[in-house]
């Protein structure tokens, strides 16, 4: 009866569940009877408390509990808070643990902690040296029955799968070594062959092996070996010292040691002060009287001088004065005793008939007319001719051709006829060729500048006056000190052009005020006029425009007044768009805009097709892409929808400045599938506004 059997004569157990073919059954499988070596990929949860040796383990969240491993399997860098150094090199590790790298400081214990510090005075022992400061017959069933979802009519063997939640027993078959589990229960033990990828937490007590410096450890197992490894070297007499960048072994620098109050070499133990010398007194002077012996020389008498005694003691002596006799030889001069402090020794008297070239060091006067055919030269002294007497002063007024030079190249003041009385000053000759040079260096030359009437004649017989300091072919005027100078005429100075106004015809404005001068030159004639460059740049009047007009450039032609024009653009969604839940991948509406500042507005209507009473929401964003939306301001809006098919209406506005031609789009998404973005025309009673984007250029 195989073709018509409705039940097995004898029920059969399938995985311990009786089955006679009259009804569907669900069988469970003992975990130990599973075949194959990989759990179905849909099985992602379990309550396993132990697993075999895993080849790899990737954990998304931190592992809780005790984790063991070896230093060789540590990846990344162990932070200081987890017992590491937070660094991967010896230098960075010692710097991180030091806490600072101040130049001239050292790792120093203060009785509680070890930290960077300057050497304290008490840290330095007494030194005998110089210092200076510091992760039972039927074969088939009439009706096949499902076993765990697999049809079975008793004609052939089948393989059934078991839902992960129906497994019995507590141990997977040992042949099952692979899975796609993303979570397990609390494991009693965990052994991993390869390094664990992901986030692993644990305690320092579970770390085995030694964490290398490169993994944030010290590479050592004792305190001494650890500090030696991080120090980098163990040179005798050096210290861990900060240099402003790193902490490394270094000798103590002179500047690191502060001023110490301790014994030093020399006689510091007996010196009481450095402000005076023992046995000294006012005016005394120390001197070396013998090897390693210093003596004091008593003060001398006022006016005495210190005289060397050679290898002996110095002494105070009165200064020696040589007494010279007056000359006793006559050489055409009468020797007269004077009051000068200079003297002439008698053995330096000139021989008879020898020419005398005297150098005068004091004031010398001649009561009678004197003739100096070789000239008069004064060095380092004033030279006066007829300084205060009613006598004529004649300089090269003879009948011979001559050159008169008064003054030199040094700073000086030359005054001629500058006294209080009326004078006639004549320089040069009226009849003969004469050159008169008056040179005051960088000083001044005054000729007849007194308050009384003076007659000053300068020039030769032809009426020529040559002033070398003036520039040829340049106007001559006086400066603020009445000095003649070569200069250009200053049209802005009333001193140069007087009180008159330079007319336009002469390159002026014909005005005396800035506003009046501009008005005189301006082509404008009415209120609101402006000036623009006409032909060849000539200033040209543009009459005022009407209210609210803007000035418009016409390229190389004249500008004009026009009413402002606004450019705009808009675009609408072409067809209803069915959205995938939580997906912004496709733009709804797009417009391409030129560079400038734009006011962009957009709107969208979302409709949920389900009539269920489900609450849902939708989001609308605006930008160059869904990932690059203008999130500030109104760039992104999220609106909570009502229950069932109620539509959601969203609108945005944004002012955007673009530097180049740019495409701007709207992107929509909802948290439920089968959401529809509606396009125009729409039924306002059910869907609200259309879906589109608009832009108006505002600058």
Radius of gyration over C-alpha positions, nearest whole angstrom = 58 Å
The mean pLDDT is: 74
Number of helices: 4
Provide the helix percentage: under 10%
% residues in beta strands: 25-35%
Descriptive account of the structure:
With 699 residues, the chain is mainly β. The chain is built from 4 helices and 36 strands. Strands 27, 28, 30, 33, 35 and 36 form a 6-stranded antiparallel beta sheet that branches. A 4-stranded antiparallel beta sheet has the order 5-4-9-10. The chain has a 4-stranded antiparallel beta sheet with strand order 29-34-31-32, with no helix packed on it. Strand 23 and strand 24 (539-542) form a beta hairpin. The longest helix is centred in the first third of the chain and has 9 residues, at 90-98. The protein is flat, with a radius of gyration of 58 Å. Mean pLDDT is 74; it is low at 131-135, 324-336, 338-348, 631-636 and 682-688.
List keywords for this structure.
25% strand; 36 strands; mainly beta; single chain; six-stranded antiparallel beta sheet; 699 residues; four-stranded antiparallel beta sheet; flat
Concise structural overview:
The chain is mainly beta and 699 residues long.
Protein topology:
Elements: E1 12-14, E2 17-19, E3 58-63, H1 90-98, E4 105-109, E5 114-117, E6 145-147, E7 150-152, E8 197-200, H2 223-231, E9 239-242, E10 247-250, E11 285-290, E12 293-297, E13 305-307, E14 315-317, E15 402-406, E16 414-416, E17 424-427, E18 434-438, E19 445-447, E20 455-458, E21 476-478, E22 484-486, H3 494-497, H4 514-521, E23 530-533, E24 539-542, E25 550-554, E26 557-562, E27 568-572, E28 577-579, E29 590-593, E30 596-608, E31 615-623, E32 636-643, E33 648-658, E34 662-670, E35 675-678, E36 692-697
Parallel strand pairs: 3-8, 15-18, 16-19, 17-20
Antiparallel strand pairs: 1-2, 4-5, 4-9, 6-7, 9-10, 11-12, 13-14, 21-22, 23-24, 25-26, 27-36, 28-35, 29-34, 30-33, 30-35, 30-36, 31-32, 31-34
